[in-house]
Amino acid sequence: MLHRILALVKPLVFSFAAVSMLALAQSEVRADPVTFYTQGCFGAACAPASAAVTTFGSASLTFTATGTPATPVTVNTPVVADLGQFAIASTPTPETLAPTPFTLIVTQTVPGPTGSGTFTATLSGTVTNNGGFLVATFDSPTSFVINGVTYTLVNIDAQNRLFLDPTATGGITRISARIEGGAIPEPATLILLGTGLSGVAAGVRRRRKAANK
Question: How is the chain split into domains, by residue range?
Answer without folding.
Answer: 2-29+186-212, 32-180
